[in-house]
């Protein structure tokens, strides 16, 4: 019998896609969550909180590989520090972290916390892998939908995204989790870099809507960082294949309220 893989954040958007892939590879999975739910064959839930540092030692018992996906608007640095310490104490053999492209460049608290989280994992003394991903289509979608509803589309100058498909990120994470510690691997972004106006226009076009745009400069350090593309992957990034337009077309199959 092989040791279970601990997945923090296994209940989240990305985690829900990774867990079945690990199961399909024949691995048992233990999910750390603040809200445990019923176990399923090969999937155990344990209660814990990465930010509070609660339940980590018990969750790591008998585990060799940890995929750390749990995250939120705040506290990702603290959570990673707590997990790194527990992983070191628990003799974990491979600790993986999902981070975000631009973690060390964007002057925004969420990104800074991710950079600190990376540091905690890299300096943990546990063999590690870190994958930086772009924003998922699912993450960009509600922002674009809200902007598209406005009669005049606000278009911060230079604001670009390269949204990536959740299934493609999950597949890469599963591959890395089943492999050996690989250090900082190539960033994973979507196939296209799209200006915010293009993202909104692609949403509006199938609905027969035309909107005028209202370009304006994003102020301050954040505006400058977006303008120079500090949130974007470099040329050596790995690129997913599912494009924004394809993702939007796929949503046509979901209930109207969610489109
Ligand atoms: N979505 C994106 O566009 C994107 C892009 C790049 C990187 N990432 C990173 O990828 C990770 C997963 O993203 P996601 O979109 O799947 O997030 P999500 O859907 O919001 O899910 C968040 C997950 O984190 C868990 N969690 C949050 N705080 C926790 C805590 N204090 N203790 C234990 N578990 C906690 C939640 O578990 P429970 O609620 O069950 O406790 C949930 O499973 C995050 O670290 C995020 O920063 C996301």
Structural account:
The protein has 259 residues and is α/β, with parallel strands linked by helices. The chain has a domain at 5-135 and 165-189: Rossmann fold (3-Layer(aba) Sandwich), CATH 3.40.50. Helix content is 36%, strand content 20%. The longest helix is centred in the N-terminal third of the chain and has 14 residues, at 76-89.
- Ligand catalogue: NADP nicotinamide-adenine-dinucleotide phosphate
- Biggest sheet record: 7 strands, parallel
CATH superfamily of the domain at 5-135 and 165-189: NAD(P)-binding Rossmann-like Domain
Strand order in the sheet with the most strands: 3-2-1-4-5-6-9
Percent range of helical residues: 25-40%
How many distinct helices? 9
The number of strands is: 13
User: Secondary-structure element sequence?
Assistant: EHEEHEHEHEHEEHEEEHEHEH
C-alpha geometry? globular
Can you name the CATH architecture of the domain at 5-135 and 165-189?
3-Layer(aba) Sandwich
Per CATH, the class of the domain at 5-135 and 165-189 reads Alpha Beta
Task: Provide keyphrases for this structure.
259 residues, alpha/beta, Rossmann fold, 7-stranded parallel β-sheet, two-stranded parallel sheet, 9 helices, 13 strands, 36% helix, globular, binds NADP nicotinamide-adenine-dinucleotide phosphate
List the topology elements.
Layout: E1 5-8, H1 15-24, E2 29-33, E3 43-47, H2 56-60, E4 65-68, H3 76-89, E5 94-100, H4 109-122, E6 128-133, H5 137-148, E7 152-156, E8 160-161, H6 166-178, E9 183-184, E10 188-189, E11 194-195, H7 196-204, E12 212-216, H8 220-227, E13 238-239, H9 244-251
Parallel strand pairs: 1-2, 1-4, 2-3, 4-5, 5-6, 6-9, 7-12, 10-13
Antiparallel strand pairs: 8-11
Helix pairs in contact: 1-6, 3-4, 5-7
The structure holds NADP nicotinamide-adenine-dinucleotide phosphate.
NADP nicotinamide-adenine-dinucleotide phosphate binds at residues 8-9, 11-15, 32-35, 49-51, 69-72, 79, 98, 100, 133, 135-136, 139.
